[in-house]
Structures are given as structure tokens and as C-alpha cells.
Amino acid sequence: MKTDIVVIGAGAAGLMAAIAAGRRGRRVLVLDHADKAGAKILISGGGRCNFTNTGCVPERFLSGNRHFARSALARYTPADFLALVQKHRIAWHEKTLGQLFCDNSARDIVSMLVGEAEAAGTTIRLRTRVGEVSRPDRFRIDTDAGPVEAEALVVATGGLSIPRMGATGLAFRIAERFGVPVAPTRPGLVPLTFAEPEAARLRALAGVSLDTEAAIGRVRFREASLFTHRGLSGPAILQISSYWDGVGPVELDLLPGRDAREVLRSRRRGRGKAALATILGELLPQRLAQDIAGGIVAEAGPAAMGPVGGLPDRVLDRVAASLNGWSLRPSGTEGYAKAEVMVGGIDTRALSSQTMAARSVPGLFFVGEAVDVTGWLGGYNFQWAWSSGWAAGQAA
Ligand code: FDA
After folding, report:
1. CA quadruple 185, 187, 192, 197: dihedral positive or negative?
2. Average pLDDT over residues 214-241
3. Proportion of the chain above pLDDT 70, given as a percent
4. Is the CB of 389 under 6 A from ligand 1?
5. Which of 381, 383, 386, 388 to mutate to test the pocket of ligand 1 (most atoms within 8 A of CB)?
């Protein structure tokens, strides 16, 4: 079979590339080994798909080249995707931090994309295994339904996260085959795990959730953190996990926006008879307050159990430091099985930022999460999928 363009991957980026190319009159065949299109869209945003973010600026993406995403994001913007959503009369709402969600179901987004792709004349072939990819003169893609030849190949097979949903490293296999470099990959937007004895301490707090600021160096996220049986999760932790180098500490501010030293000293002045645990219980969830107070008693001795009025500055400052800057050293992450995204991927230096085309291989394009561009939590990753898919679909 011959066609103009083969897109491998009927996910967010692949469908958008197919729509854009199909609308230009190109014959497009989309191949996917899954039994349904857009499987990750369906489970995204708790089933409601956080499909974009109104604050989508390039600074909110991780990449070896922090300018790479700029062009595609500017050419197909959150407003462009929202216009498509509105054209299909899909009800949506804005949650916090510019995050846009469907009112009803992520299924609305998949139906919209599949409908648009079909209206643009593209063919989506599911349950199709992709084998060898070669390029004698045109691209030849071997599949279990026979070979397909195409002038252009758009690789939209996503990242490595959630392998049980069909994630594979096909993009990297194709990259290697054509000499396109790949930046090292790791799980992103993923819960952090800890070794003993820290793990036992965090386990005892499982279920506690609070407003925090999680930081690594100058990168900081003010959102909720959640203690779990395996370590730490919640939006602040997922966000910072993408920046974690696998070695260093993560700082957790349990009283974000407030100077704990001042808060504690003022309470000591006004409420000198109260116990430290009581004061902390007014600032933090009870179990966490008990845990921190217990830690201080273990460190400073039984005097720390008495009225806070009797505590010396040294002890109070020690408590304040652990409130404003609890330094935790993760031992790892929950890995691709739990990661929302993959950090790293096809090296952006090998791609045109305008078209997503591989510089050294005419007609070969990489889009979406397979590329070394990873967004923050909150709709950024889908916007990258739409924008990069659109860019390739205009050029392929
Ligand atoms: P995507 O993974 O969507 O699609 C890749 C396609 O390629 C799949 O259909 C797959 O079957 C196919 N494929 C892979 N290997 C293949 C092979 N060897 N042969 C044939 N086909 C192959 N982002 C966001 O912005 N808002 C959100 O609300 C969420 N929520 C969310 C929840 C969960 C649980 C996860 C895991 C992820 C999110 N994300 C998210 C991230 C978002 O889902 C992700 O960034 C995009 O789906 C990436 O789009 P792609 O099209 O690049 O890959």
C-alpha cells in the first residue's frame, strides 16, 4: 500500500498531526498497535482530560533546549485548541492555575479528534503491529498487515510511561535506525520514594495532605503534597519530581509564604503556656504536627515537651527550619509504571523547531512526548502534543 504520510501513534500528537496534514489534502494513514485511539487521553485528568493550560509559556517545559518549544507553541496555541473544543460544543471549565478540563468526559476529546481526522480524509488503522522501518527511497513501514510506503513518516508513539497502556520505545528504535540522537530519559511527574528510616517516618504519615512549596534550587512549586505508604506524592511533588536529578535533596516548605521563625516566636510570646505540639497542631495537620514535635523531643530532650514559653530560641529555630525547609533525600521514584510523563527523548538539536522534522533525514518527523520536551503538570503536555503535532502536520 502507498500513501503520502504514515503517522505511527493514534494518541494526542499523532491525531493532531493527521488532522493538520489531512486538511492540507495529504493522504494520511495512522497506525497504532492499541485497540483504541487516544487511550491516554481517556484516562487523563481523572477521566476529564486537562486538555490545555492558559498559561502555556515555553518556560513551563523541560528540555535540553529551553527555546525549542517556543515556535510550535506560538503557532498552535491553547486558544486554537479551545476553539476546536468549542466548535464541537464540548463543555469545559477552568480549574485552578489555568487548567482547562472537560465538564463531562475525556471521551469527548477523543471523539472530537477522531471525527476531525476522519473528516480530513485520514485513515486510522488500529491493532496494527509495526515492525521494521526503512527508507530505500520512500519510507517503508513493515506491519503485520503488510508493508506501507510513504513519502513522510511522523513518529508519534509517545513516551515510556505506563507501559501497560501500550507505551513502547519504538520512537527510539526508529531514531537509532536513522542516526537521530536521543537525550537520556527518566520518569517525570512521578511520586518520590525514600529509603529507611525516612520511609518509615513518611509511611506513618500516609494520607496527610497539605499546602506546601516543593523546591530544588530555584525551581519551586506551591501546591499540595501528599504523604503515601510509599513516600511522597501530590501535585507539588509530581511537579518537582521532573526536575529531580536522582541524587540530590528536595526541600519541602510546610508553611509556604510564612516565616515559621516569626510565627513560632509570636506564638511563644502570646501563648507561652501551650505545648509545642499544640502550637504546631494549629499550623499543620495533627499527625504531621505530632511527628515534628516528637522529632524535636527526640533531639532536644523532654524539656521540649513542656510549655513553648520555656523553649530556647535555639530549639524554636530548629523547629522553624524544619517547617520552612524540610530537606528530604529521595531514594528513587515510582518509575514509569506510575509516571505521567517521560522526561528526555528525541534530542531537539536534531529537529527543526518549526516543523519537528529530523534535520538529517528528509521526511522524518518526531512529535509529542517522544521528543525531549516535557511540560509541567496541568495540561501542558497535551498542549505540547497538539502544538508539535500541528507543526509536523503543516510540513509533512
Ligand atoms: P500518547 O502516549 O498519547 O500516544 C502514543 C500512541 O502511540 C499510543 O496510542 C500508543 O498505543 C502508540 N504506540 C506506542 N508504541 C507503539 C508501537 N510500537 N506501535 C504502534 N503504536 C504505538 N497531560 C496533560 O496535559 N493533561 C492531563 O490531564 C494528563 N493526564 C495524564 C494522566 C495519566 C495517568 C498519564 C499517564 C498521562 C497524563 N498526561 C496528561 C500526559 C499525556 O497523556 C501525554 O503527555 C500525552 O498523551 C502524550 O501524547 P503523545 O501523542 O505524544 O503520546
Report:
1. negative
2. 98
3. 100
4. no
5. 381
